[in-house]
TrEMBL record:
This is TRAP transporter large permease protein. It holds the Pfam family DctM. One of its GO terms (cellular component) is plasma membrane. Part of the tripartite ATP-independent periplasmic (TRAP) transport system. GO terms for molecular function: transmembrane transporter activity. Signal peptide: none annotated. The chain crosses the membrane at residues 6-33, 54-79, 99-123, 135-162, 168-192, 213-236, 242-260, 272-293, 313-331, 336-353, 359-385, 397-416. It comes from Roseibium hamelinense. It is found in: Cell inner membrane. Keywords: Cell inner membrane, Cell membrane, Membrane, Transmembrane, Transmembrane helix, Transport.
């Protein structure tokens, strides 16, 4: 009977129950109906146990670092740097949007923060230059999914925590796929710009102007270098790296750039605390949900079903990508990874798929789900920032989603894209 927990969960989501409560209510109801009241106690105890983890502390620290940098005007410096490099191209501001997302990804690792910070700045600017509001919101949402792919990434920290993988290896494996998404979006912008005659954002910057923009962006761009350098050099753990990122953001904002005021810090802490609480509550609920998954023998049942379809890893990877894409339409990436990772990971490990490679397939796929209708979170954030309807943005984003889906399959069937850097640095076999 417990196997019905997933259909019940999906029904609860469809009637509008928040994901956190659905993750606890669906298994709780079935345990009660099954006469397993003791396991209900275990279920809710695991909400706290799921959050009580040193590696997971990296998530609120990275979110706080992102908030500090955004409030300190660092986002504006990244946009100016991007515009100096690409503003002269046709569709320049759309290219700037994508490049800014790639740079911002190295600071916060959050798609929501990216959409909110860059969208509030670039969507009005793009509209003034003649872009439709729906297009501006769509490219902002599409490019924001790069945030959790390029390190640091909260989603990859969650995957490493659940599956016992190396955070550093996952961070390294995400670099090339993240860049591929960015380049793919720029190619699509070039195609659309030629077809619809998009405007040029600005004249071509001189090398001196580019140099000045680079100097302004120097300290923000050093953030991912410090984070990854410290982790790869064995100087600090990913959690300690996140704390270092917060300290660095404070020093840069308060004393170097002097764009952050002491009076701003309480509001920054409040915003970061609320966002972190949402993520960690979802992680805790998903870990409790995972308890019932194991009690129901769902992993074994699903594994037998998947293997009955085919024993060819290439066909199974195609089918799993379709499954993950559909899941990403309805469920946030963090809970989806916690629920499905322990089920799907061992299946593909037995089929000879490298665990780091599968981690990237799953993380990239579910991350792109953040921009996929009907429940993509960044679509709602983009709608809120732009004032455009979610349905309208969903139609405008389709060409960019096609590019991102193509990247998913490239990463899936050509492991070198994700595995080369971890292998060269000794973090993967």
């Amino acid at each position: 009977m417990l196997i019905w927990f997933l259909p019940v969960f999906l029904v609860l989501l469809m009637v509008g129950l928040p994901v956190f409560f659905g993750l606890l209510a669906a298994p709780g109801i079935l345990l009660w109906l099954n006469g397993q009241e003791r396991d209900i106690t275990l279920l809710y105890r695991n909400v706290y146990n799921g959050m009580d983890s040193f590696p997971l502390m990296a998530i609120p620290f990275f979110m706080l670092a992102g908030e500090l940098m955004n409030r300190g005007g660092i986002t504006l410096r990244l946009v100016e740097f991007s515009q100096a490099l690409m503003g002269h191209l046709r569709g320049g501001l759309a290219h700037v949007n994508v490049l800014s997302s790639m740079l911002f990804a190295g600071l916060s690792g959050s798609a929501v923060a990216d959409t909110s910070a860059l969208g509030s700045m670039l969507i009005p600017a793009m509209e003034k230059q003649g872009y439709t509001r729906k297009f501006a919101a769509a490219i902002t949402a599409a490019s924001s999914v790069i945030g959790p792919i390029i390190p640091p990434s909260g989603i990859m920290i969650i995957y490493a925590y659940v599956m016992g993988e190396s955070v550093a290896a996952l961070f390294l494996a995400g670099i090339v796929p993240g860049v591929m998404v960015g380049i793919g979006l720029m190619v699509m912008i070039k195609v659309l710009a030629d077809k619809y005659d998009f405007p040029v954002a600005s004249r071509k910057s001189t090398w001196g102007e580019r140099g000045q923009a680079s100097l302004k962006a120097f300290f923000p761009l050093m953030t991912p270098v410090i984070i990854m350098g410290g982790i790869l050099g064995g100087i600090f753990t990913p959690t300690e790296a996140a704390a270092v990122a917060v300290a660095y953001a404070l020093i840069i904002g308060l004393f170097v750039l002097r764009t952050l005021k002491v009076g701003d810090i309480p509001d920054v802490l409040n915003r970061a605390g609320i966002t972190s609480a949402v993520v960690l509550l979802l992680v805790g609920a998903a870990m409790a949900f995972k308890t019932v998954v194991s009690l129901s023998y769902a992993p074994q049942i699903l594994a037998d079903f998947i293997l009955s379809l085919s024993e060819n890893p290439l066909i199974l990877l195609f089918l799993i990508n379709i499954l993950l894409f559909i899941v990403g339409m309805f469920l946030d990436a963090g809970p989806a990874i916690i629920i499905l990772g322990p089920i799907l990971g061992p299946i593909f490990l037995d089929l000879g798929v490298d665990p780091i490679h599968f981690a990237i397939i799953m993380s990239v796929n579910l991350t792109i789900g953040l921009a996929t209708p009907p429940m993509g979170l960044v679509l709602f954030v983009a709608a809120s920032v732009s004032g455009e309807k979610v349905e309208t943005i969903s139609k405008a984003i389709l060409p960019f989603l096609a590019v991102e889906i193509a990247v998913i399959f490239l990463v899936t069937y050509f492991p070198a894209f994700s595995m080369t850097i971890p292998r060269l640095t000794g973090f993967a076999n």
